Amino acid sequence: MKRRTFMKGSLAGSVLAVAAGSGLLKPTDVLAAGWPKGAFDAQSEADMLSSLYGSSSASASGKIRIKAPIQAENGRVVPVKVQASLANVESIAVAVAKNPRPLATSVNLSGGATGYYSTRIKMGKTSKVTAYVKAGGKLHTASKTVKVTVGGCGG
Amino acid sequence: MARLTKIKTRKRGDTTEILALVNHPMETGRRKNKKTKQKVPAHYIQKMTFELNGKVVAEASLGPAVSKNPLTAVTVKGAKTGDKVKVSWTDNKGESGGATGAV
Q1: Cystine design at B28: which of A8, A92, B9, B64 (Cβ 3.0–4.6 Å)?
Q2: B59–A117: do the CB atoms touch at under 8 Å?
Q3: Chain B contact set for A111 (CB, 8 A)
Q4: Does the B5-102 domain belong in CATH 2.60.40.150?
Q5: Do A121 and B76 count as a contact with CB atoms less than 8 A apart?
Q6: Distances in Å between the alpha carbon of B97 and those of A2, A106, B89?
């Protein structure tokens, strides 16, 4: 599994992992200019995390609030708001476990931005929506299940 | 083709929410055209940048799993009335757009 992840990560991914491992660079710096293709192509949340943040271990945190409907009437438009009351939030990612590609969107915050991100996502079926928040160099996570009655992917 | 981008700000105490609405189809590349049975090619926004007074405050990466006509929002601390807000985006076909406004 590790080898597979590594191979998939291609050059950008491995550079990122090395940089993150050595603590010299934040992974977000490496990919600042580009779009993290590897992370969006990843088919599992673990692959997605290691591609996006260079690490797949995240600890559950009670300081992240996900505002999403318990039951979404339309899977094509599911409003999701993530509010993290952690210090130094660097990045927020939103993942849907049962979508073909889990990663829906991510945001890198800098300057005066606070730990808040709001968007609308598509969901194929009832699934857990997970928010990953990178704050102070650590990954935190929280999730919430959203029921979808009508599919939003593929039609 | 110019796509409409709208931005709006909401001030709540010390924090200001910057909302951006882009008129965009956000095709996943998985949907099929019912008549021709052909897959509709993927067409979605990949990058959105939020700027406050010329300084980047948030850089969002969007995937095909974001709804069409995406409405995204971030909050910033300590923005003053009259501060300049700029939102710009690019999609996977190289189209780009954006809008500017003030708090």
Answers
A1: B64
A2: no
A3: 52, 55-57, 76
A4: no
A5: no
A6: 39, 19, 5
